[in-house]
Design a protein that fits this description.
2 helices; alpha+beta; elongated; about 25% strand; four-stranded antiparallel β-sheet
Length: about 90
């Protein structure tokens, strides 16, 4: 019984440590035409923070000379490609 308890404690400790050192990765998706969200530009990079993803999107809008009401973007946290879709833990703009 003592060995089982020790194994459980070790496993829980490993899971806890892995969650602490896990690095969050943000992905960016830019929509140059707010009325056509099927047309999008992938950030083609990983961002270390939500702010850096937002900065990329705002720079992309300036680069394309778009007004605020012409475009949209979203930033996704820890996205993975599954069954033909990009699935993120969280998305925000």
């Amino acid at each position: 019984m003592k060995n089982i308890l020790s194994i459980i404690v070790v496993i829980l400790t490993i899971i806890f440590v892995m969650n602490i050192i896990k690095k969050d990765i943000w992905s960016g998706y830019f929509y140059p035409d707010i009325n056509n969200l099927s047309n999008w530009i992938d950030g083609n990079t990983s961002f270390e923070s939500l702010d850096s993803c937002r900065n990329w999107a705002n720079n992309k809008a300036r680069e394309l000379k778009l007004e605020d009401n012409q475009y949209d973007y979203e930033c996704g946290l820890n996205c993975k490609y599954k069954s033909g879709f990009n699935v993120c833990e969280e998305t925000t703009d």
